[in-house]
Amino acid sequence: xxxxxxxxxxxxxxxxxxxxxxxxxxxxxxxxxxxxxxxxxxxxxxxxxxxxxxxxxxxxxxxxxxxxxxxxxxxxxxxxxxxxxxxxxxxxxxxxxxxxxxxxxxx
Length: 107
Prior knowledge:
Elements: H1 2-26, E1 40-43, H2 50-59, E2 64-71, E3 76-82, E4 85-91, E5 97-102
Antiparallel strand pairs: 1-2, 2-3, 3-4, 4-5
Signal peptide: 1-24
Protein name: Beta-lactamase-inhibitor-like, PepSY-like
Keywords: Signal
């Protein structure tokens, strides 16, 4: 009887060790996501899609388009000015605003 009880205890400890080993083996490693930096190339104002120009007129009616850039991701970066105020507005080709940044002097 002692032998049977000892055998049961040994099996129990082995089973607990195996489940820990299985859990450790199934643990997922952290996922690394690399994001490519977007580069912009200046383009002519005439090359900006009509949908983007319409969105600029609707959202930034008093602003003037000073410079236009096309990003390597296909989105547009526009430098808009209104008096002393300067902003960079980012649009997709459908004219949807992606983000807006305040332009610092010298940019």
